[in-house]
Amino acid sequence: MSEWRPTACVLCECNCGIQVLVGPDGRSFEKIRGDKLHPASAGYTCNKALQLDHYQNGRTGRLTAPLRRRPDGGFEEIDWDTAISEIAARLREVGERHGGESIFYYGGGGQGNHLGGAYAPATMAAFGMRYRSSALAQEKTGEFWVGARMFGHPVRADVEHAEVAFFVGKNPYQSHGFPRARTVLKEISRDPNRSMIVLDPVRTETAELADFHLQLRPGTDVYLLSAMAAILVRDSLIDEVWLAEHAEGLDEVLAVLRAVPIEKYCAIADVDLELVTAATRRLAAAESVAALEDLGVQMNRFSTVVSYIEKLVWLLTGNLGKPGTQYAFTGMAAIGHDRGHRAGEGPKSPVVGAPIISGLVPCNVITEEILTDHPDRYRAMFIESSNPVHSLADSARMREALEVLELVVVIDVAMTETARLADYVLPAATQFEKYEATFFNFDFPRNIFHLRHPVLSAPDGVLAEPEIHARLVEAAGVLTEDDYAPLRAALEQGRQAFAMAFLGVLADRQRAKLAPVLLYRTLGPTLGNGADAAAMLWAAAYNCARKFPESVERAGYGTGLEAGERLFEAILTGEHGIVITEDDYEVTWNRLRDNKVRLDIAELLAVLADLPESDDDVDEWPFVLAAGERRAFTANTIVRDPRWRKRDSGGTLRMSSADAERLGLAVGDLVRVTTRGGSAEVPVEPSDRMRPGHLSLPNGFGLSVADPDGIEITTGVAPNELTEFDSRDEWVGTPWHKYVPARLDTVSADSVPV
Ligand SMILES: Nc1nc2c(c(=O)[nH]1)N[C@H]1C(S)=C(S)[C@@H](COP(=O)(O)OP(=O)(O)OC[C@H]3O[C@@H](n4cnc5c(=O)[nH]c(N)nc54)[C@H](O)[C@@H]3O)O[C@H]1N2
Ligand SMILES: Nc1nc2c(c(=O)[nH]1)N[C@H]1C(S)=C(S)[C@@H](COP(=O)(O)OP(=O)(O)OC[C@H]3O[C@@H](n4cnc5c(=O)[nH]c(N)nc54)[C@H](O)[C@@H]3O)O[C@H]1N2
Ligand code: SF4
Ligand SMILES: [Mo]
After folding, report:
1. For residue 411, which atom of ligand 2 is closest to its CA?
2. Within this chain, do residues 318 and 424 fall inside the same structural domain, yes or no?
3. pTM of this structure
4. Are residues 50 and 124 in the same domain?
5. How confident is the model at residue 753 (pLDDT cuts 50, 70, 90)?
6. How far is 60 from 703, CA to CA, in rounded Å?
7. Three-state secondary-structure class, residue 79
């Protein structure tokens, strides 16, 4: 019997609730619709969710058995016992020769799946691994670090309730980033009392809805935002009363901003001074401003400094801890938290000495940590649920790095660009075949968690990640039945006795690291319905109730130890997603360090005080390429089957109509785009939305899949064939993928259909 089953979309961090109708074959999604019962998305989806069958059943190169690389470079299928014991033995060997810390862990989850990665710390501990990274360390670590310095706690924007929404290098219409984005954007746009300000060189779908589109020259946000902050100071638009109560370090900031050459900076950004002034005044006059910055600036020149000055703009106008501004959120995991060490202090990567922010080595130094004869270089990599050969800067160099490693293990659902270079590939169940969840729980005032139940059965030969980690940890010999027995005995006395026994485990720091697998093997099997993987969430729920007792109580779970237990039960049984915490806006202040904002970050103020004019070589590189734009049919590399796209199937290079006309190019004409890092042929799409001199390539293209005859088809250009690892932020090492100096050559007059 077919029935609608609740789950979620896995294509962006919003994870909108959906319902699926499984076809009579028991494998395909016959229909997909938004889930009205989901507490955050409430029935909303964008166009992409409806294509999820292509993730599940498309031509993806689905993996269905563990693979081992043969000496000739091909792969052979092996059984799970062989795979686990060989991988464990080889990880141990690497550890014995070079220390476990020479095994680098990368990934742990994509846009929809973090539950598996929550078990990975046990595998890391079992083999002595220490260093790790993920995609967050090539986009968000600058903002994390700045947030840690200014607030001591990560904050997010309450766009939904804002009078003024301020988007800096962010196109929520396509990329989302907050629930029901398209609906919210349209509401703001329609409301005469609310406004939208967008900084983007492209007239995006979001910019089109904006009241103020500051269509700046690419890479000049630091100047434009400095000018805006300086206008606030010059015209006495700052909220002095609020700042006196809530902030420290104002004088140091004012001293720098008073010296900003406003007109000159607007000229550098190439935006009309009057437009900048009007937008700034609108922002200052608002009761509430919610600001969202994203890759347009986080992967661009001065990225970390821009994250800082962007925050100064809304802090100087008093926009924190009130409805429609920014808030410090709760959650089931600590995403975005960092200690906020001063530059040069704090943990560092072993070879390059790069700062480790939020526990993550900057992605852009990974190849440098491998391609060297430094004694502490990484010798092996354990890669889970990510595709670094495609997603990290300079794919050619990343391939070279994987080739020199002694061992590469990949856990994925598909034969990806990265898996192809592995020594062992372990096949995972898809996100619809297992219990799954994300820790992207950033909502406010009601925060949401969604434990998705499987809606399809997994094929033989694949395993969910928690089981893979448990087997690896056991194969390492660090956990046996003897370790499980006391916890199981306690469980027989009930959960409270179990909780006490588990606290005993946590008291031993070494054992505490193995806690995920201890929970999985003891509590897991008692949860019923094959929900073993939810075991980790039991500890996470207790932790959430301990860290945010009032918020958990307000959400209806009571107080004390009981609250953690009730919250966990609600998570386990709430198939549509549940409210985990409920806050008021004021609570933000309790979460900030010293209940205050620290405005001055000396290192970054020094940069702002002394910005260079321009160092571009426009003769050699007349264009700036943004490598990796989010479009209607891109989703990182999660959907591999090119047939999922209803438009832009080849992934065009967008350029301004004026440039196209000058070069005699029409839609579909092939050009060769060349950068310092590489060169590729791509069809162009002239557009009046683009600034002259600017080029844009979509993300998520350049994937290879086999057609039914086994012939490999690659669709579009993989952006990181064109990027360079050393084009990166000075403070946290994030890449400047949106600012790739480029040149164009026409290839032929032949057009291809786009
Ligand atoms: N459709 C779709 N949605 C997605 C994803 C996807 O693959 N496809 N991926 C998800 C992920 S992982 C992320 S991190 C988010 C990213 O979400 P976004 O950051 O919104 O996505 P991008 O399109 O990469 O970049 C945003 C904007 O930056 C602009 N930009 C380029 N150069 C500059 C500049 O110099 N200054 C300014 N101010 N802006 C500039 C671009 O024109 C673009 O409109 O999207 C998520 N959502
Ligand atoms: N040039 C350039 N590069 C970029 C960007 C850009 O804008 N420009 N954007 C960057 C950003 S913001 C991000 S977030 C990264 C994303 O890049 P990555 O972090 O590498 O992640 P994804 O492309 O999302 O790939 C997720 C992987 O998980 C696999 N997968 C799917 N479901 C499961 C599952 O259930 N289990 C397991 N084990 N695997 C699964 C997929 O097959 C895929 O290989 O790309 C970055 N790279
Ligand atoms: S891709 Fe669209 S439907 Fe899917 S989670 Fe994101 S916003 Fe929701
Ligand atoms: Mo991302």
Report:
1. 38
2. no
3. 0.98
4. no
5. low
6. 10
7. coil
Q: DSSP character for 25?
A: T
DSSP lists the bridge partners of residue 735 as 728
Q: Which atom of ligand 1 is nearest to the CA of 696?
A: 42
The minimum-distance atom of ligand 2 relative to the CA of 418 is 44
pLDDT tens for 585-620 read 999 999 999 999 999 999 999 999 999 987 677 889
DSSP 443-512: -SSEEEE--BPPSSPPPTT-B-HHHHHHHHHHHTTS--HHHHHHHHHHHHT-HHHHHHHHHHHHHSHHHH
Q: How many whole angstroms from 387 Cα to the centroid of ligand 2?
A: 5
The amino acid present at 464, given as its one-letter code, is A
Position in ligand 1 atom list of the atom nearest CA 638: 7
Crossing angle (nearest 10°) for helices 250-258 and 221-234: 110
Can you tell me the mean pLDDT for 367-390? 98
Is residue 53 located within the same domain as residue 71?
Answer: no
Mutate to test the pocket of ligand 1, among 224, 295, 694 (most ligand atoms within 8 A of CB): 295
Task: Give the total number of structural domains in the chain.
Answer: 4
Residue from 16, 294, 443, 638 whose mutation best tests the ligand 3 pocket (most atoms within 8 A of CB): 16
Residues 45 and 81 both lie in one domain: no
- Give the model confidence (pLDDT) of 441-469 as tens digits: 999 999 999 999 999 999 999 999 999 99
Query: Which residues lie with the beta carbon below 6 Å from any ligand 3 atom?
Result: 9, 11-12, 14-16, 45-46, 48-49, 176
Mutate to test the pocket of ligand 2, among 297, 391, 625, 723 (most ligand atoms within 8 A of CB): 391
Same domain, 519 and 427: yes
Q: How far is the C-alpha of 752 from the C-alpha of 754, rounded, in Å? A: 6
Ligand nearest to the CA of 10: 3
Ligand with smallest separation from the Cα of 391: 2
388, 529: one domain: yes
Residue showing tokens 């919250």 = 567
Contacts of the segment 16-23: beta carbons below 8 A, 24+ positions apart: 16/40, 16/41, 16/44, 16/45, 16/46, 16/49, 16/179, 17/41, 17/42, 17/43, 17/450, 17/576, 17/577, 18/45, 18/49, 18/52, 20/52, 20/432, 20/455, 22/455, 22/456
**More reliable by pLDDT, 752 or 446:** 446
> What is the CATH classification number for the domain harbouring 670?
2.40.40.20
**Which structural domain, as residue segments, surrounds residue 13?**
3-57
Tell me: do 42 and 79 sit in the same domain: no
